[in-house]
Amino acid sequence: MDEMEWRPLPDMPEFSVNAYGRICKTDTLQELRTYTNSRGYTIVSLNKKMKRVHRLVAQAFLPNPEGKDMVNHKDGNTTNNCVDNLEWATSSENTQHRHQVLHESTKARPVEKWTQGNTLIQVYKSVREAERMNGLTKDSLRDYIRRGALCQGYRYKYQEAANGQQAD
Asked: Could you read off the pLDDT of 41-50 as tens digits, one per residue?
């Protein structure tokens, strides 16, 4: 792919993307600043909406004849948004890739709920259970755990295995 080839975004032709994940204004070719979100994906603000760069690259450069709804990073690096590293996938294909190719566990990990004074008050069998039991929206707790931030006045952590490693 030619780094200088810019393609307009299908739903926002005022912006263009190249095969390496750089985004610009179509009329001026002024590049836009990108950011990394809490999940490690490169994002960009377009018309006051945050968009994942890998999806924009895939939409502009990769045919999707089967209508798959996810974009997979082949090497597992969520900041490598080169078109050669991306492929359309179904949810199950994405999960299978994460497990078989990247060797990431798909098993639930126990989560602990701690007070600000470092008192353990509850252990949940998974993030999903902790979210459900505490009235949190789907996937919000993972961000708090990753950042080590307080959530509703509590700190949540993945439970560590007996040998000091995080449980799978």
From this structure: 899 999 999 9
Gap between the Cα atoms of 151 and 134, Å rounded: 10
Whole-model pTM?
A: 0.65
- Whether pLDDT at 104 is above 70: no
**Comparing C-alpha atoms, which of 6, 37, 10, 11 is closest to residue 24?**
6
Q: Which has the closest alpha carbon to 85: 117, 61, 109?
A: 61
C-alpha Rg value of the chain to the nearest Å:
19
Which ranges of 37-157 would DSSP assign to H, the alpha helix?
53-61, 91-100, 127-133, 140-147
Tell me the DSSP string of 130-149. HHHHTTPPTTHHHHHHHHT-
Q: In a 10 Å sphere around its CB, with 0-12 CB exposed, 13-18 middle and 19+ buried, how is residue 153 labelled?
A: exposed
83-84-90-93 Cα dihedral, nearest 10 degrees: -150
